[in-house]
Each structure stands twice: as C-alpha cells, then as structure tokens.
Amino acid sequence: MSMAGAKDPPSGRGAPIPPASGHRGARGGWLSRFAPGVRNLVPKRETPDNLWVKCPDTGEMIYRPDLEAALWVTPAGRHMRISADLRFTYTFDHGEYEAIEPLATRDDPLHFGAGKPYRESLTSARKTTGEWDAGSAAAGKIKGVPAVAFVQDFAFMGGSLGMATGEAFIAAAKAAIARGCPFIAFTASGGARMQEGTLSLMQMARTTLALQELKAARLPYVVVLTDPTTGGVTASYAMLGDVQLAEPNALIAFTGARVNPIRETLPPGYQRSEYLVEHGMVDRVVARKELPDVLGSIIGTLMMGRSRLPAA
Predict the structure, then answer these.
(1) Predicted confidence (pLDDT) per residue in 176-189, tens digit
(2) What's the pLDDT score for residue 260?
(3) Distance between CA atoms of 73 and 129, rounded to whole angstroms?
(4) Taking a C-beta distance cutoff of 8 angstroms, is the pair 272, 229 a contact?
(5) What's the confidence (pLDDT) of residue 10?
(6) How far apart are CA 246 and CA 307, in angstroms?
(7) In this structure, are residues 308 and 155 in contact, taking their beta carbons and an 8 Å threshold?
(8) Element (DSSP H or E) covering residue 149
(9) What are phi and psi of 222, to 5 degrees?
(10) H or E stretch including 57?
C-alpha cells in the first residue's frame, strides 16, 4: 500500500518509448483500447492524504485507524494533542455529553494587527478546528458521576487564553455550581493571547474568582494537565485544582526551558509531568486510557465526602 504524499519513482533517463503501432499513445491503458469508455465504470480509489501519521518521537509512520483506536497514543507512548470533541468523547460515559455555551465576546476589541490581522487569525483557526475558540465546556457523566468539563484545544491559536476562553471556563464553573457537580479542567495552552492585551490577562483573575465560587459551594475541582500547559494558564486555574493529574510526558511550565532567570543548571526533564510528580507539583501521572476510571474514582469519592458535610 502506498503512503499518502509518496511520489512515483522517476522514470529512466533513456529516450522515451514510442507507443505501440496502430495506437495513439497509451492513454487509458489496454482496457480503454479493448472497450473504449469501460474504464469509467470502475471507480477510482483515492488514498486519503492523512491515512498515515508520523510519530513525533520515533518517526514511525502509524496507520491512522490504529492510532484512533489507541486514543491518539503512539506505540512509543506519546500522548498526541487532541481536539475538544475527542476529549469529551473519551472522557464522558458512552461519549455522550451536552455542550455548554458561554457568553458571547467581541472578536477583536483592540483592532490588533501585527503582520497578520487578528480577525484573519481567528477566522483561520475556526475554519481549521471547527471550534469557536480555544476553550470548550460540556456536561455529562464520568463513570456514572455527573460532572462538567472544560477543555482547551492547542490547535486553536496554541490554546491561548483570551476573553472567549475565559468566558467558556467561567460558564463551565457556573454550570457545575448550578448542577451541584464536580468541575474538571483539561488544560493545554501556550499562555495568554497577546492580541487581546490586558483583556486576556484579566481572565487569570476572572477564572480564579469563578473557582472561589466553586469552592464556596463545596464542589471538587480536578485539573488534568496535558501537553503543553504553560504561561498564564499555569499561573492561574491550571494550578488551583483540589487534585492535579497530568498525562505522561506533558510539558508543564510557566516559561520555556531556554528561559532561565536564576542562571542555574537545571536537571533534564524538569518541566515534564514525571519530574513534577516526584517533586510534589503533580499528584499523579495518568495514561489517557485510564483517565475516565481515575477521574470517576476521584470525583465519586470527593462527592461522597461532600454529602456528609453539614449544610452551609
């Protein structure tokens, strides 16, 4: 089977071979010469351009249906970035969930333009991902326990935190309070969205205040850190969970590894989830296929404890 993108081998460098006597070239092959037009009865089989996916770690070409069956985890163990829709499908029971719509926000409040207008970047990201912005919220059940989840999609402008993503997070937190159920956040971000300036930085405070309301309602908040979680998201709601989980080898940091203000030699992998769980920043590293069971156990236990508390 040929792989998508592969090129045909080059022909020899000799003189071209003339067509057989009595034929006008070889167009259509012997079948069309035997019965003109019959080749049109046989449908042409096209190979999808994305039938094979390259593993970022090993360079191995992986058959896409096999990768999908493995929840987008490569044989080498790389947990590849996935869309919000897939995250909800993998997390909620039977892949069933109800979308939670946030309040509408202005697309380009600062009329930002540097190289490429911000509105064009938004339009391109929406067309590519099928999402309105980097943050999405939904409600469903995880191992029978009702829950609300917020998911960031790194494919949408690097999962950057802007006004729309902040509103999606706040809508999810308010929905959890209204339903009296746990709130789970799957983080994946390069930080605050520079095209919205201070308005994006304000979302760090606004999401933190929403979590204070969740805490006042005595509802659990669980964070699942995915690759990568950095910048203003790490400095706000990504580190405020009652329980901090992470996918294997996820990059979790505030700045990139090349930014070293303390000018010290730092250990290899110090920004990866396995190192952070050893040093107390993360509670547990959980493989993607195990997340529903682990999350269901955690939120089920925490909600049992809440039911025993006296009424506020």
Answers:
(1) 999 999 999 999 99
(2) 80
(3) 20
(4) no
(5) 41
(6) 27
(7) no
(8) strand 145-152
(9) -115, 135
(10) none
Structure tokens at 66: 């096999």
Buried b (16+ CB within 10 A) or exposed e, 49-79: eeebbebeeeeeebeeeebeeebbbbeeebb
Count other Cβ atoms within 10 Å, centred on residue 261: 6
Q: What pTM does this model have?
A: 0.82
CA distances from 95 to 89, 179, 217, 247 (A): 4, 20, 28, 20
Yes or no: say if 154 and 82 are a contact pair by the CB < 8 Å rule: no
- The domain segmentation of the chain, as residue ranges, is 47-76, 79-307
Beta strands at 135-142 and 145-152: parallel, antiparallel or unpaired: antiparallel
* Distance separating alpha carbons of residues 198 and 282, to the nearest angstrom: 29
Instruction: Please tell me whether the peptide bond between 19 and the residue prior to it is cis, using omega within 30 degrees of 0.
Output: no
pLDDT beneath 70, residues of the chain: 1-49, 307-312
Q: What does the pLDDT read at residue 48?
A: 60
Query: Using one digit for the tens of pLDDT, what is the confidence trace for 241-281?
Result: 999 999 999 999 998 877 887 788 889 899 999 999 999 99
CB atoms within 10 A of CB 282: 24
pLDDT for the residue 116: 86
> Which residue is it, tokens 């022909």?
11
* Token duo for residue 290: 């195990």
Separation of alpha carbons 12 and 21, rounded Å:
22
Find the length of the chain: 312
CATH 1.20.1600.10 fits 79-307, yes or no: no
